[in-house]
Design a protein that fits this description.
By secondary structure, this protein is α/β, with parallel strands linked by helices. The chain has a single domain, classed as Rossmann fold (3-Layer(aba) Sandwich), CATH 3.40.50. It has a seven-stranded mixed sheet, with helices on both faces. Strands 5-8-7 form a three-stranded antiparallel sheet. Strand 1 and strand 2 form a beta hairpin. The chain is globular, with a radius of gyration of 16 Å. The two termini are about 20 Å apart.
């Protein structure tokens, strides 16, 4: 069972024993949000994250009793590699989950990052524009406090929904990312933080450092699902 503790300012923070429990809680939260959104306005518009814990959550959705025909799927960021490359976030989500459930493919919107960072961002921005506001944005956090492909110390344009990213501090260097403006235009933002490697970033977030993940959390209705290994940084 989670314990609700005000670990991170400006968020509802649920603390779990380990990353397996976080993944299950995330899957449950996705289903709850989907049911609420579909009941309210007939569709569920969700923006996905990459990473091992989100993928573990997606795998737990395969056997769910869900109204898949009403799900609309978007992505928060993508690497500028070919569509079949193992580094693609969209490919990982497809293989772990979407290829195994009857979500209509016309309702799954991969970022065309294979076009290059600038062209991919320009092509995806109008798709995001028609989707907003999202019903749920799912995010992870890197060990440096980045989220999606928004890295510390980088300028994030306020007038764009999708942006090109170059010289990322982790490979591949070229990416496309949704901006703060897009990621925070959502009924809720669900942030997954797991592993001892995230503890230092959690500590910095708690003490008020201007991390990208903290900026998203401050600007949106945010809930954090975190395991105890990551929470060590909040002590």
């Amino acid at each position: 069972m989670p314990s609700a503790e005000p670990i991170l300012p400006g968020t509802d923070t649920d603390l779990f024993a380990d990353k397996t429990a976080v993944a299950q809680a995330a899957a449950d939260a996705l289903l709850d949000a989907a049911n609420a959104a579909i009941g309210h306005h007939g569709c569920f518009k969700v923006c996905l994250a990459g990473g091992t814990t989100p993928i573990a959550a997606y795998q737990r959705l395969i056997d769910a009793d869900a109204h898949w025909e009403h799900w609309w799927i978007y992505h928060g960021d993508e690497r500028c590699v070919p569509p079949g490359d193992a580094d693609r976030n969209s490919l990982a989500a497809d293989e772990a989950w979407l290829n195994q459930v009857p979500v209509p493919r016309r309702q799954v919107f991969a970022i065309p990052a294979e076009l290059g960072a600038e062209a991919g961002a320009s092509a995806y921005a109008p798709i995001v524009q028609t989707a907003l506001p999202f019903d749920l944005v799912l995010l992870g956090m890197g060990e440096d406090g980045h989220t999606a492909s928004l890295f510390p110390g980088r300028e994030i344009p306020e007038d764009r929904l999708a942006m090109p990213v170059h010289q990322a501090p982790k490979p591949p260097p070229d990416r496309v990312s949704l901006t703060l403006r897009a990621l925070t235009d959502s009924a809720q933002v669900l942030i997954l933080v797991t592993g001892a490697g995230k503890a230092e970033a959690v500590r910095r977030w708690r003490q008020g450092d201007d991390l990208p993940i903290a900026r998203v959390a401050r600007a949106a209705r945010s809930r954090v699902l975190m395991d105890r290994a990551a929470a060590a940084g909040s002590a």
